[in-house]
Amino acid sequence: MDERSAKSGEPREAVPKGRGAFALDGASQRARAAIKAAWWTAAGGVTRALAQPTRGEAKVRFEPQGPPVSAARLRRAYLAAFDKDAADVAAGLYPPAQDGLGDPAEAFRQALDVIADARAVDQRRRRGDGVEVREEPGTEAYPNYYRQNFHYQSGGWFTDASARRYEAQVEALFSGAAGAMRRRALSLLARHWRGQDQRGLKVVDLACGSGAFLADLATAFPRAAIAGLDLSRAYLAAARSRSGRGGVQANAERLPFADASLDAVTCVYLFHELPPRVRPVVAAEIARVLKPGGVLAFADSVQPIDEPDLSRLLEAFPAYFHEPYYSTYAQADLPALFGAAGLSVAGQDQAFLTKALLLEKPW
């Protein structure tokens, strides 16, 4: 994306071409991603075969409105995520990702854990029980909208076991493409800061979860001061361990940072899990803590307006994965939402089922 299109927010037309110095890194990224994709595609297939979420009786019935999804169109969108990721590595925007399979024994353990938990997830889905965690002691102090089993996952956001399992769950769900999709936000931020001295830059990864994107940030910007923030104690502990960076437990509605104190905030897959009344509050808090000229690197689900051909898939997501606020997110005008907080779109990108925006605070 050239300088003009980055500032206008026009869609990215082409992936960058690799420089000679990083061509081998790009090839390595592509090869490791292929192995990872094959592994998590197989693991996801096993979990779906065991649970068979589209069959049998369930409290929530899915009645699609959109047209059937073309398998060829879906495959093209899926593969494009890996193509963009590898091309960005080859262009030197960021180093090869460290989210490959790594230790085969650990990858096997993670897959078995996800598969073993699949039946419990499916039982909650069939009961329509997305608030089981509200019965757990110690959750009362959290916002009511947060006290849910998002994705019908065991433990919600509250347990160490959930935090350990989460990354494997999303990779199995998205057939190994989760990391490549998230890094569309990293790509936008790396382009924006290309050639800039990282020393002195302060970045917070908002709702850092179990730390996969926080680890990407730490690898891409090793000299910057980077920390995670999450409302979950368990997930924050996992993020610290995964990334080697510090973190703070706090609510995104009341960020514990001074006005105009951060050069960048990153936010990945948070806004579709916020009620409509909370989204403007969080957007305003992000704008408050950014310095003039600071940026928000945002990534979340694509919306039907972005991918009409995949609209049926987007309709299915909240039905099968307990996403109570997703339907309002799907219709939200994100540039207007952040514009009301004083942030303007400076760049955008998307891959497979994720869209990314770079939003800038005016000087």
UniProtKB/TrEMBL annotation:
<protein>
    <submittedName>
        <fullName>Ubiquinone/menaquinone biosynthesis C-methylase UbiE</fullName>
    </submittedName>
</protein>
<dbReference type="InterPro" id="IPR029063">
    <property type="entry name" value="SAM-dependent_MTases_sf"/>
</dbReference>
<feature type="domain" description="Methyltransferase type 11">
    <location>
        <begin position="204"/>
        <end position="298"/>
    </location>
</feature>
<keyword id="KW-0830">Ubiquinone</keyword>
<feature type="compositionally biased region" description="Basic and acidic residues">
    <location>
        <begin position="1"/>
        <end position="16"/>
    </location>
</feature>
<dbReference type="Pfam" id="PF08241">
    <property type="entry name" value="Methyltransf_11"/>
</dbReference>
<dbReference type="InterPro" id="IPR013216">
    <property type="entry name" value="Methyltransf_11"/>
</dbReference>
<feature type="region of interest" description="Disordered">
    <location>
        <begin position="1"/>
        <end position="21"/>
    </location>
</feature>
